[in-house]
Amino acid sequence: MRAVEIHEYGAARDVLNFNQDAPEPEPAPDEIRIRVHAGAVNNIDCAIRSGYGSEFFKQHGMFELPIIMGRDVSGVVDKVGVDVTQFTIGDEVYASPSNRGCADYVTVKANFVALKPRNLTHLEAASFPYVILTAWAALVDHAGLTAENTAGQKVFLPRGSGGVGTLAIQWMKAWGATVATTCSTKNIELVKSLGADEVFDYTKDGFEGRLQDCDVALDMLGYEMEQPILATLKVKNAARYVSIISPLMPLTVEHGYDKGVEMYEAQLADRKSVQAELGREFAWSFMQPNGSALANIAELIEQEKIKPVIDRVYPMEQLVDAHEYVESRRARGKVVISIVDPG
Ligand SMILES: NC(=O)c1ccc[n+]([C@@H]2O[C@H](COP(=O)([O-])OP(=O)(O)OC[C@H]3O[C@@H](n4cnc5c(N)ncnc54)[C@H](OP(=O)(O)O)[C@@H]3O)[C@@H](O)[C@H]2O)c1
Hints:
seven-stranded mixed beta sheet
């Protein structure tokens, strides 16, 4: 099968390798095999490719070289493991495999897969799984938001024009939240069209000192903005701060695995206790595979409450250009990869 893989870490142009003759995977008893039609690129792909955090991944038995890239797929089930009952050959599905998605075929645990939203093409559906699972882990698993309790809550989603932000704005609006976000001047109309109620231009005045009384903040900016984002939250009112940019990887890169994890845990405990004094919760959150989350959001997509926001589509042969564009950090919504020419 065709696959784009790396045999060493480095810059996209130096290490991404188009293989015409990679071995086809076979599904384990609890897996399905997907004939991949489309994928997408996420920042994590670029991090894995560059070798950033490779020691950390090795310690977890993940991502040993060679690696087939790609953590988003939409396609058609073409083989089913003997224990799988919920999917049959021919089902159209979407999922976030642990790499290996930028290929003709990928195997994924059936529990981590959902039926593709019926109203979307494969190219559109492939823009969603990784960002859905990132936002779900943060907003549902950590911040405790549900379809029933979100109405009336004020949710701050800084970086609204990116892959996670464009999804999260629409989803939180669909569940009834009031949404505040940040972006640059050129993306104000985009985030407003997605439903954002309050928009702060980070290239002008920004949100600092101007946004307050939020119930939930999903930090997509990182350490430098942690304090200003915390300052937007209510005090003594069970407000929740969840960041999807944690220091875990940088600490393990800088101090080695054991020391880095120890420092991460100490920093997390400190922050939790400082925020608990203010009546707030603090969390660092990571994407988690979760088929029922994908099925849940597929319903909102089919109701057209959430629409894909796709900046660019590249054929798999041009994955180098796609990685370089994502690394520019300027993408509006998602960068999608065509595996099967949609014709
Ligand atoms: N923990 C996890 O599991 C997890 C999962 C997914 C992502 N992440 C991390 O979360 C972050 C967001 O991911 P993503 O995929 O949504 O990113 P992305 O799509 O690559 O973000 C690109 C967008 O960010 C905007 N942007 C850049 N700097 C900004 C700033 N200072 N303020 C506001 N907007 C800004 C850009 O708009 P302009 O061109 O207008 O600046 C662009 O539209 C990344 O750091 C990523 O590594 C973590």
